[in-house]
Specification:
The protein folds into three domains: about 100 residues, Nucleotidyltransferase, domain 5 (2-Layer Sandwich), CATH 3.30.420.40; about 90 residues, no CATH class; about 120 residues, no CATH class. The chain contains twelve helices and seven strands.
C-alpha cells in the first residue's frame, strides 16, 4: 500500500540547509533553529534537490549554503531560480571546533547548516554566467602557465641529478638552456626524457599564445579595460585577470569588502586592549592574490608615492607584509578611479587604516 502520510507543515518557519557537495551526491542536513529536522543524501542533480527542498519544507522559507569548489555555481543558480535563498561560502570561512579532527559528509553538512542558522556565515560573490565564461580564458591561461613552470622544474631536477647544472646556477630555465643541456647529455635516457618534457613545454607555449590572443580580443570590448590599464604595474594580462575576476570595482560598497574579496585582509588577534595584525587571511579569490603581488612589485618602480609608502613600511614589517600593504593601497585607489569614472591617479586615499 502506498504511504499517504502527509508531510509536516513548515508554514512560517525558517529552514537552514547545509549541503556537502560531491561529484555524484549531495549530503543534506536541514534544521529549524538549532534543531535538525531532516537528513538525507541524493544524487548530485541540482533541479532534483531544489524540488526535494520545496516538497519537504512546503510553506517555509528555505536558506541553503554549500562550500565553493569544483562544482561551481550551477547548484546555486538552480536553487535561486526555484525561489530558494542560496549562499556559497569560502571553505576557509567555515568554523572548525578545536581538536575536532573527524570529518564526514554528514558532519560537514551539519556544520554548515548550524553556522548558517546562527548567522555566522557570509556568502561569497557569485559571478554571472557571462562573467564566469570570461574568466575561463584567463584562468585556463593561468593553469597552463603553472603546468609549464612545473615542466621547467622537472627538466632542471633531472639535470641536477646528473650534475649538469651547478648548485649556484640561478638562470631561469629556457629553451636555449634546454638546448645546452641536450648538447652535454651524458646518456640516451636523459636525452629522451628531456626531449619529451620539452615538446610538451613547446606545445604549451603555443596554446598560451593563442589564449593571450583571445584575451586581447576580449579586452577590446571590455569597458573596464582602460581604467585597469591606467594603473601603474598593470599590464595586458594582469588587466584581463583583474577585470575578469573583479569587474567594475565600484560594485564594492567599501574597501573592507574589496580587500576581503581579494584575500588581502590581514588576520587579527586580540589580547586585552591590544589588537595585533598578522598575515593575510587568504579567504578571498585565490586567482587574485598572486597577480596583485606581481602588480604591486611593478607599481613601486613606476609610482613614486607607492615606492615611498613601501620604503616607509618594510623596515618594521618586512618586505612581504609591506608589498601586501602596497597591493591593498593600489587596488583601493583603482576602486577610487572606477567610482569617479576616470583614469587612475595617486590622489585617492584609502578610507580604511588597514595598510599594516
Amino acid at each position: 500500500m502506498k504511504n499517504t502520510t502527509p508531510l509536516q507543515s513548515y508554514d512560517g518557519e525558517q529552514i537552514y540547509v547545509g549541503i556537502d557537495v560531491h561529484k555524484k551526491t549531495y549530503v543534506v542536513v536541514a534544521r529549524v533553529g538549532q534543531t535538525i529536522v531532516k537528513k538525507w543524501s541524493t544524487a548530485a542533480r541540482p533541479a532534483d534537490l531544489a524540488q526535494q527542498l520545496l516538497k519537504y519544507f512546503s510553506g517555509g522559507t528555505i536558506h541553503t549554503i554549500y562550500e565553493a569548489g569544483f562544482s561551481g555555481f550551477v547548484l546555486h543558480r538552480e536553487l535561486f531560480k526555484q525561489g530558494i535563498d542560496s549562499k556559497v561560502v569560502h571553505a576557509a570561512a567555515v568554523e572548525v571546533a578545536a581538536h575536532n579532527r573527524v570529518k564526514t559528509d554528514n558532519r560537514d553538512a551539519d556544520k554548515l547548516s548550524s553556522q548558517l542558522a546562527a548567522g555566522r556565515l557570509r556568502g561569497i560573490y557569485v559571478p554571472t554566467v557571462e562573467q564566469e565564461q570570461r574568466r575561463m580564458l584567463s584562468r585556463t591561461r593561468e593553469q597552463l602557465v603553472e603546468h609549464r613552470a612545473a615542466l621547467k622544474n622537472q627538466i632542471r631536477m633531472k639535470a641536477h641529478q646528473l650534475g649538469l647544472i651547478a648548485p649556484e646556477e640561478r638562470r631561469e630555465m629556457s629553451h636555449e638552456m634546454v638546448a645546452e643541456l641536450l648538447e652535454r647529455s651524458p646518456t640516451l635516457e636523459f636525452t629522451v626524457a628531456v626531449n619529451a618534457l620539452h615538446q610538451i613545454w613547446q606545445a604549451l607555449d603555443e596554446q598560451i599564445k593563442q589564449l593571450v590572443a583571445q584575451l586581447q580580443q576580449q579586452a577590446q570590448s571590455d569597458p573596464n579595460e582602460a581604467t585597469y590599464r591606467s594603473a601603474p604595474g598593470v599590464g595586458r594580462i594582469s588587466a584581463r585577470v583583474l577585470s575578469n575576476e573583479l569587474g567594475d570595482l565600484s560594485r564594492f560598497a567599501n574597501e573592507r569588502q574589496l580587500f576581503s574579496y581579494t584575500g588581502l585582509t590581514p588576520s587579527e588577534h586580540s589580547s586585552g586592549e591590544q589588537t595585533h595584525r598578522g598575515a593575510i587571511t587568504k579567504q578571498g579569490n585565490r586567482h587574485l592574490r598572486g597577480i596583485l603581488m606581481e602588480i604591486a612589485w611593478r607599481a613601486i618602480r613606476k609610482d613614486p608615492a607607492l615606492a615611498r609608502f613601501f620604503e616607509r613600511l618594510y623596515p618594521r614589517t618586512g618586505k612581504q607584509r609591506a608589498i601586501v600593504a602596497v597591493a591593498r593601497k593600489l587596488i583601493g585607489r583603482i576602486r577610487g578611479a572606477f567610482r569617479k569614472a576616470e583614469p587612475y591617479h595617486n590622489d585617492y586615499e584609502s578610507s580604511l587604516q588597514m595598510a599594516t
